[in-house]
Amino acid sequence: MSTSETSRFVRLRVELVVEVDDSGELASSALRRIAEDEHMPAEERLHAETAVKEDDAEALAYLVDPFDLVSKLPGVELSQASWSSEQIDYDPDSPDWDPDEDDDDDEADEDVARDGAGGRGL
Prior knowledge:
Elements: H1 23-36, H2 42-54, H3 56-63, H4 66-70, H5 106-117
Helix pairs in contact: 1-2, 1-3, 2-3
């Protein structure tokens, strides 16, 4: 398949598990980010401030910006992004923890990546 026959769009899936060592520092950083957002309406700002004070996952969601991940990559323009965060029970040694449990079709995706239609070299 030639380059002109393939889609120019690539879905990049990233899943991270982070440990929050200092909820107060995380919330403070998120509050600063919210305060700097000149385009956020006052009602939404109040809701956001309340949410980040009460929930580490909400605070993290206000600090992680997919645009920041790709904005400096040459030849790449972000077309669409969505992300979410949630608090989880995490035990990496538990047999119940399978980071690939939702990736039933990833083997096919990996085959495509190995065949040169994708990859990690962006």
